[in-house]
Design brief:
With about 190 residues, the protein is mostly beta strands. It is about 0% helix and about 55% strand. The protein folds into 3 domains: about 1-60, Roll (SH3 type barrels), CATH 2.30.30.30; about 65-125, Nucleic acid-binding proteins (OB fold (Dihydrolipoamide Acetyltransferase, E2P)); about 130-185, OB fold (Dihydrolipoamide Acetyltransferase, E2P), CATH 2.40.50. The strands form 3 sheets. A 6-stranded antiparallel beta sheet has the order 1-6-2-3-4-5, with no helix packed on it.
């Protein structure tokens, strides 16, 4: 059995009979008291966050989770249909597993999915993604001097704040985790 000294961000453990992912942890040694770990966890099934304390050296049940690359085929309802790059098997993954980056994921993008057996427990899109702007107000010549921003709708339907000089039908690179404009793609 592993103990609290083996904790790391992103690992999966069994806690109160549920599979949880460690989001954040901190080792604390308050004054003359015993050391403990303050751990923030996300329940894989429900998506809810929780915090708990573990004594230093306390035994934990770690769960083995495999991470594989998948291609996004299409979106169906509230799920993405993904294809395994090696076996060509298709699986359905709920979009809530991707978090905020789900609004920027498009067909043909490679994503990483964590699997517990055959069940997807976590998913992560690319760090940045290139998207085409489908609608934005036209830019005016000379608008490059200020850092003013305007809303632009991209091909996935999400709205991104872009500089005034960016026009409709241009390709831009977006940080998929924060939704921020990075640069214009040539």
């Amino acid at each position: 059995m592993a103990d609290t000294g083996d904790l790391f961000r992103g690992c999966f453990i069994k806690h109160n009979g549920e599979l949880v992912q460690v989001v954040e942890y901190e080792h604390r040694t308050p004054g003359n008291l015993r050391a403990f770990y303050q751990v923030k966890m996300r329940n894989v099934r429900t998506g809810k966050s929780a915090e708990d304390r573990f004594r230093a050296g306390e035994s934990l049940e770690f769960v083995r989770v495999d991470v594989k690359d998948f291609n996004v085929l299409y979106k169906e309802g509230e799920s993405f249909v993904l294809m395994d790059n090696e076996t060509f098997d298709q699986i359905y993954v709920d979009q809530h597993l991707f978090g905020d980056s789900a609004q920027f994921i498009k067909e043909g993008v490679t994503v990483k999915v964590s699997l517990n057996g055959d069940t997807p427990v976590s998913a992560e899109g690319p760090a940045s993604i290139e998207l085409k702007i489908t609608y934005t107000e036209p830019g005016i010549k000379g608008d490059t001097a200020t850092k003013a921003m305007k809303p632009a709708t991209v091909e996935t339907g999400a709205t991104v704040m872009v500089p005034l000089f960016v026009n409709q039908d241009e390709m831009i690179k977006v940080n998929a985790n924060t939704g921020e404009y990075i640069e214009r793609v040539k």
